[in-house]
Amino acid sequence: MRKFNVSILAASALVLGLAVAGCTPGKDSAFSADNPVAKIGNVTITQEQMYDKMKKDAGKRVMADIITLELYKQEGAAQGVTVTDQELDARVNPIKEKMGSPERFQQYLDEKQMTEQELREGVRAVMLRDKLFEKDNPITEEQIKEYYEKRQDKFEGTFEEVRPQVIEKVKDRHKRNNIDKWIDELYKKHNVQILDKDLEKEKEKEKEVEEEETTPSNK
User: Fold this and answer.
1) What are the pLDDT digits (tens) for 122-175?
2) pLDDT in tens, 57-71
3) Which residues of 150-164 are buried (b: 16+ CB within 10 A; e: fewer)?
4) I want to staple 33 with a disulfide (CB 3.0 to 4.6 A). Which of 48, 58, 111, 166 is the partner?
5) Closest CA to 202 of 69, 62, 51
6) What is the pTM of this model?
7) 182 neighbors 137 (Cβ within 8 angstroms)
């Protein structure tokens, strides 16, 4: 199942920011190939070296997160699906409360290397994704009943009493089994193109590996 990694938002923002700044002309640009970011003795590490290393090590993953985030936004706008601040608060506030104190919550954010705003935007993206997926791929009454009948010994209570639990289980299972295909359809629908040749090559290599793993051996 493809997961939108909330904790990678900070890295995504940094890599995207460096890429955009690198394309911005002018002496006041925040990014410059020769701008130093670290120094070890007489050796200087430049922004370009840092960006190239980040791009090589995590570029594909970061780009995938940036693309899927934008896909959810565009698809949400097209379908009129949104996540309200009230809905977002209902999901984020329990996280804050679970931490016990504002200081512990801040420590949690520091450990994840993100700000509260980045956390909120990441959670909003996940909630928007789930709303869109469930709208495009609704579960049926037949699926709910079938799931319960096969596993009713694992539930305590009658079907009607445990129905909410069953529905959540079916939704989760349905999402795990179908979300990859749904995201692939979004890529095609919104005509996603990887314009960076290096990242496109990495995508092609990954596809070749997947095909080799799924192709039966003739030996």
Assistant:
1) 899 999 999 999 999 999 999 999 999 999 999 998 999 999 999 999 999 999
2) 888 888 888 899 999
3) eeeeeeeeeeeebee
4) 48
5) 62
6) 0.73
7) yes
